[in-house]
Amino acid sequence: MRDDLQGLEISQKELQKLTDLPVNDELIILIHPIKKLVSRFIKQAKGPEGATVVFIGVTILVFSHVTFDLIIRLFANWVTIPSWLVFVIFTLCFGTVTQVLLYVLWKQRISTVKKNITHSLKVLLNDVDRYNAVIKAIDINDQIEAAGNPGVSLKERKKVLEALKLTRNDLVRALKTERILRENKKFIVSRAELFINNLATLTAMQVSEQATEHGRLLNEALQIALDVQQEMRTLQSQG
Fold first, then answer.
1. Which of 57, 63, 112, 156 has the maximum number of C-beta atoms within 10 A of its C-beta?
2. pTM higher than the cut 0.85
């Protein structure tokens, strides 16, 4: 991702911090990080330092087994089956229990979101998804250009990014406002600065070339800003 796109995307971590809710939380499947670790190990093993990587991997595995075998001999010498088999069974059981606990915690977090989410927050989360999709589209376009296709270069890139920055500010402001009102339902929000948006500036930046890529992106940013403004009005009326 180019430097001028860095920091524009609203990450899941930032979104959860802004809303104080575990929104867009995904269930952690243990097998996925294990697959990534194995894949990374195999890739490095095929590299120039393959012998070192394999040695370290085998050393860790042997050390883990020896340590486990020592624990079995000290605290469970009544076990008659081979320690390596106990190690395998223990690993599978531990992994299963961990996965069940992760699922229970995930369900609790999902339940928390369902209990606290408001209509306004649903709209804003949808706008955040649309906003991030625009960032992703620009990033993919940049990658295609970097691959040797200068013809796909985004025109008026500076204007597009400026529009996205303004839209990002509006989204963050709206999310903060929604959280304040959600957490203080009986409190009338009086902080006017939260309701100041950059829609007028963004509208002035809108280009007439609707068919161009940069025009489409600017119009998408404008539409998101319009939705955010409407939701801000709704939030103000709730206050």
1. 156
2. no
